Amino acid sequence: MNRLSIEPGVAPPAAPAPVAAPTQRLVSLDALRGFDMFWILGAGEFVVALRRMQPSPVTNFLADQLEHKPWEGFGFYDLIFPLFVFIVGVSLVFSLTKSLERDGMARTHVKIFRRFVVLFALALIYSGGVAKEWPGIRLMGVLNRIALCYLFAAIIFCHFRWKAIAGITVLLLAGYWALMTFVSFPDVRPVDANRHSISSNLTTTNVADLNFSSTRQLRGVFEPGLNLAHYIDQKYLPGKKWDGTWDPEGYLSTIPAVATCLLGLLAGLLLKNPSLSDRGKVQVLLIAGAIMVPLGFLWGLQFPVIKKIWTSSYVLVAGGYSALLLGLFYLVLEVWRVQRWAWLFIWIGANAITLYMAHNMIDFYGLAWRFAGGDVRKFFNTHVAAGFGEVVIALVSVTLAILLARFLYQRKIFLRV
Predict the structure, then answer these.
(1) What gap in Å lies between CA 290 and CA 178, rounded to an integer?
(2) What b/e readout covers 168-191, taking b as 16+ CB neighbours within 10 angstroms?
(3) To the nearest whole percent, how much of the chain has pLDDT over 90?
(4) Distance CA 329, CA 338 (A)
(5) Is 343 exposed, middle or buried (0-12, 13-18, 19+ CB in 10 A)?
(6) For residue 165, what pLDDT is reported?
(7) Measured in Å, how far apart are the chain's first and last C-alpha atoms?
(8) How many angstroms separate the CA atoms of 36 and 49, rounded?
(9) In 3D, which of 44, 47, 17 has the Cα closest to residue 31?
(10) Mean pLDDT score across all residues of the chain
(11) Core-most of 1, 79, 261, 290, by most CB within 10 Å?
(12) What is the C-alpha to C-alpha distance for residues 146 and 225, in angstroms, rounded to an integer?
């Protein structure tokens, strides 16, 4: 069977139990990917529904962590996307090593480009590329960014050793910081009849309202819609933009996103290194993560930690947490061999992008209302607790996604780019 997955090349074990994994397969990587996807598939809605039913310091904190920061800052949900990109980098080390050994450089490049094209096409379909007309289609988005990061990281992996890859990563992060800090751009805020800015912030969501004829230059500004990355989107990115005049997955911020993928690539090279013991690999991952997180927040004092422009400081914070999670999953699943708890995450991780596409097209939450809405929801709200009906609906939603993942896994249906 073919398989469609963020990890392009590591096939799951034939047996459904995680403990039966072959030696060449990293159960921890599938489990971590599944853990990441688990929150997208509805677990976050479940926690938010709990807060609506019973607000408390605990439920408020958990629900807040499952929402993106409006702009500056970092919460758990701000880790979901970069963790996926990080996992792409880890995975391609294993898949492309096999391809280079078996098929050679030229054929491997063809496979890389083919995977990129298919994944980018799926991204356009996800954004409504079949049902909607241009320019109502989003050209840059989550899957689009994953495709681009895979393309550039894969090519870099094929041609450079780990020291050069580390150097390229540093260069990308430093170069992006320099561009965002020192390159000037026009102040596009709308102006009144006297050519004074209407507001201190950019509040319009219509590109036509922007003042592209402005002669006033800005530099080193990191506000929503008022920064170099968003100016480039406003000026040159066609199609639908997620935030009206700019897109959080726009052109320029793809540069540091590639660096996130390269951090994963370096982690993959570490895990594949035969000269290190498994415990030694865990130690390196945990130490690296423990260094990157505070280093990122320290850099954030000048270059704020902002997901929506994927700042270099954000890359270090998210990369550090990703390394810590990978180290913990590897320790528990590969070193200690405590694996049975991870069955649910492995089901999901084995068909990550298939489930991501299904989440968009099937709408598990909407389907859950058909099973648990109406009188069922009213019964729980009346006889159990106010708001418990919404908790049940959220639980049904994530359960439907898990059942689909289990169905695909047990029948060995693994779709692949």
Answers:
(1) 25
(2) bbeebbeebbeebeeeebbbbbbe
(3) 75
(4) 10
(5) middle
(6) 97
(7) 11
(8) 20
(9) 17
(10) 90
(11) 261
(12) 23
In the structure, what pLDDT confidence band is assigned to residue 203 with cuts at 50, 70 and 90? confident
Closest CA to 87 of 13, 24, 150: 150
- pTM given for the model: 0.91
